[in-house]
Queue: 3 jobs
Job 1
Amino acid sequence: MSVVLTLTSCAIIAGLSITQTASMALIVQDNDELEENINEGLETQFVDTQILLKTLQGFDCHFTQVNENQINVQTTCGNLIYQRGAVGEAYKLYLDEINDVEGLVQNIRSFEFDYGRNVQAYTYDHIKKNLTDDMTIVEDELLEDDSLYLTINIE
């Protein structure tokens, strides 16, 4: 028997992404609505702290992990604060000292895309490590949309 797994990047799965929400919050809203939205935080798909930190390490930014539920990121375009109530919850994104709206939105898009890739890579490695003796990967293909297509044979 064979099992087929398709690992799709979180950035692809998340239909309405944080970048679209952030773009709308930053560009379309008037100042009162923008301030209210920033104070409430923007929803993200980021749950895993280690993967988020790994993602941030790949960028030209300075970040500080305040504790396991808050990471502060300083970029030339503005500051990002990723914060959550408790471990296991998704982080919310708070914006601070915005200098360049377009640049900040582009930074958020890049973080989001790379986080999705890092989650995909972690999941792929986790699957490979946890295959039992009666399981083998028969096919391992990267699709055009960057999804991974795995066929695992179970004997």
Note: The CA atoms of residues 51 and 122 lie 8 Å apart.
Job 2
Amino acid sequence: MVHYILTSITKIFKKKDDSSPGDKDISDIVSQMDLIVDVSEQTLSDKKTLAEIEYYINNIKIAKKYKIPMVIMPQSFGPFNFDVDSMYIMGDIKDILFYPKVIFCRDQFGYDEMMGYFGLDNLRRANDMLLIDDNFELPNVCSRFYKPDIPEVSDGENVAIIPNVECFNKKYNDRSLEMYKRIFESLKAARKEVYIVCQASSDMEICKELANAFRHFENIHLVEKELDCVEFGMFIKKFEFVISSHYTNCVQAYRNYIPVLLLGSGAKFTELAELLGQEKFCFDVLTEEFNSYDVVDALNDYIKDPDVAKTRIQTRMINLQEKSCFEIFDELKW
């Protein structure tokens, strides 16, 4: 079991002057690491399975076992409303969260949840790291054989739609389909070219279903290629605005000053929109109060004049980038 976990640690950085690990046993490799940086998505939450949570905290236990410094970069945490049978996991979480040098929460809700339940001294608030920094050299993070494959789009006014399969569960499926029907109708009337983009393999079927259901709309196109983060960062720049139910794609769009219609669920979406002054364009689609007519009204505001939102996003982004979670590496002198 330990060997399996070691093979899949979230992110491991090794100093450049170290020798190549070659064919060493994975436990030997991990024991020689200088630093472990966790860049997970929201995993410590009652929305995840116990197996996923245990996997997450086991990675921290491995770092502790080998005395490897660990930094948990900005991510979402909570809620922690476990049932009686699952409550034991809270003790396991509390016992290990003291180990990382720092744990960054990217939203206030998660910070309050973590501090309220665990009272951690190593807990800090920081905005999502993708919002703050785009200054990386591709050859430093990708093989020299890597070549981004960016899908072609038209030269017209383009809009990207990024669905999330979670919005199409049994309870909300019909309502979500009706919402997208109204979105597609508004975009067709506005003569926008629409590209349905798959963010993850699990979303491909719903992307195909949407494209097929509205295939009579000649302006709708399906991007069947699942883009990696580098490709998506390049691809997103081709769009006037984005309609997304995935948090990371919203962040990537904002980083490029592209307006977003956020159709997600949870505090992380709400706080992200507030951070960029985009509250009126954020909707929790998994609540009983949700109304798709409000989404269409917000969409029409973007259609009329996206530059207003773009200017506000750009202004807010300048202030956000003055201080970042990356300063932790200076503190660690690494």
Note: The two ends are 31 Å apart (CA to CA).
Job 3
Amino acid sequence: MLYMWKAKWIPLAVLAALALTACGGNSSEDGEVLLYEEEVSGGAVEAAEEYETVTVRREDYQEVYSDTGELEYTDIESVYINEEDAVLDSIKVKKDQRVRKGDVLAVYHLETSKTKLEKQKLVNQQARAQFESGLGSLKNSLSQAEQEYKRLSNAAEKKMKSLEIKKMQKEIEAYKKGEKELLEQEKDYARLVRMQSATKLVAKKGGVVTSVSKDMVGQDVESSQKIVEFRNNDKWLIKVSDPESMLRYNMKVKVRLGKNMKNYQQEVTGKVVTASDLTDAGNADQDGDNTIYIDVSDADKKKYDFRTNNIYIHAVSFEVKDALMVDARAVGSESVGFTNRSFVWVLENGNLHKRFIVSNYNNEKDYLVAQGLSEGQTLAIVE
């Protein structure tokens, strides 16, 4: 058992000589001078032997991110038949086939009822007749006004008639603009008639086919039903899970291709192009972890086979050179004034000394020490 505690103030000059500095990350008070230590005396040698000890060490500290990645294609084209009464006759492509712009993907036809077609034809004919009748009436009125103008000799009357003619000409031009809608209706009808026979569904751009709906051949097809899907194999990002938010936007990483993380055949440089703080928490995988995207150069995409190889991501998320490090089990915490301060028990000459330390960074395993300890000191794990 430990007993007989006594506080002992250390002169400021002595403490300043003992303070060492190491690099670190998240903490506070790294400029604060340690003012005292506590010592355990009276049977301390026997008590110290009861505790596990660790040594203060100096080494390069790294936090490493390593995980698998998968390709997520960013240029995917889904093809639909945006027509009513469509029947799919055949699909002309198969999965993994490369297609070019203009290639035939499928053939279909429309089964519009004769009644519907006749009704549309009659509506168009009536609209055309009405338009032509109105246009003819306007042109006749204009012709009469022009004839009257020629018979007039009075300058004032001719001027008035001239203004009337110009107004009528403008009315005719405005009326003619209404023919555009009529022409569209007539084109739609002609298209419906034409599509009663085989109609080709063509690719609007190139890519590699990823899925086809063979089971829909011979059936009525709704506009929401996908017929063919294809993608551009050269446009993709690498998706990884980042549950601890170790990857940062614009951070460079190593992308490895091969059997596993260590046994790989190629290694290229990648760059993080999204991050949770930029793209919101909505980017999460099925486990709820952050989803991050990594890109590589177009040259590397063409040079290496990312599609059939395993993809591994390796990155150093945090690094401190020549850091003074302590096993986290040896570090305690207590409230001093209005702050929490970290301390350790230093074993010297068989005695345990309570020593406050300043840490700039810590995790579950280690503390990086900025002040209060030196390399090689022995610490007791007092729990």
Note: The helical segments are 12-18, 44-48, 114-151, 155-177, 179-194, 276-279, 298-303.
